[in-house]
Amino acid sequence: MGEPRSQVLAPHQMKLISSFCNLSNNMSAQRSQGRATGAADVSQQEQASIITLRKISGRKFGEIADDLGVPESTASTVYYRARNRAGGDDIHAMLASIPPQSDRPGKKPKVENGSELSSRMRKAIIDKGDQKIVAAVRPVLQEVGINKLNRRQVENVAKEHRDPEHDYAIIRKVRPKKSKLDEEDKKQRVDYSQWLIDEYNLRFPKLIFVCYDETSKPFRGTNNRGGKQKISAPRGRNVDLNNFAVHVDSPRFSLMICAAVSSYVTCSYERPCIT
């Protein structure tokens, strides 16, 4: 077997990636000014950086997108197009296959990233999180004379744009059915747990615990606890979705289920029945 090929780049290839260290800040500034972010609009230096970070450093496309300020889909498209042109994943061939920069300016988006309109739309999506995003932004668009944006365009503003108040992607999530515990709720849980421990120590082994659970059922109308209602919220696992819980009206009817557990194994009781 021959020696493995050295990953030494030719001078013209090195020139393509020589400005990589400055790309992150430059690209972020350009994107905020509304520059197109499609794969055809990415410069040769940017394409070389994407290929190098993916091939040499093994970075994920999401990480590359965050570093360079481009959508994740653009980063992956640039890489796989270069691999197809090169007929393989040899980095020398992939870098050599990068085409000259297109002179086309690209179509100017109706809503530019970083613009006042973008910020107002993103604020409306969060403030009216229980509405579908197209409906939430409709009043804002009508104020500036834009009659209609399709759902994909509005989703792009929500997911890809950023503004000072909402520096994150906004997506639709299923709303939880239980609200966030406040300090009083937390205190009651601690007190209840301590009561259980005290009762257990006092009465063991002749101890029976009876617990209840219930589900609310309204007469007519919609059951607010049912279904999978959605909310517009920040993307990420660190988001406490309990802050966006479904509002629940006071139930007019509740079905309750009870169960009992005993530490006294020799006792015997007949099960209750419903007649």
Structure characterization notes:
Residues 96-119 are annotated as: Disordered. InterPro entries: RNA_pol_sigma_r3/r4-like, WH-like_DNA-bd_sf. Residues 104-113 have a biased composition (Basic and acidic residues). With 275 residues, this protein is mostly helical. It has three domains: 11-96, no CATH class; 116-167, no CATH class; 183-262, no CATH class. 42% of the residues lie in helices and 10% in strands. It has ten helices and four strands; from the N terminus they run αααααααααβαβββ. It has helices spanning 11-17, 20-32, 44-55, 61-68, 72-86, 91-96, 116-127, 133-143, 151-160, 183-203, and strands spanning 170-174, 208-216, 230-234, 254-262. The chain has a two-stranded antiparallel sheet with strand order 1-3. Strands 2-4 form a two-stranded antiparallel sheet. α3 (44-55) packs across α5 (72-86) and α7 crosses α8 (133-143). The longest helix is centred in the last third of the chain and has 21 residues, at 183-203. The protein is elongated and about 85 Å long. The N and C termini lie far apart (84 Å). Residues 1-7, 21-25, 28-36 and 221-225 have low confidence and may be disordered.
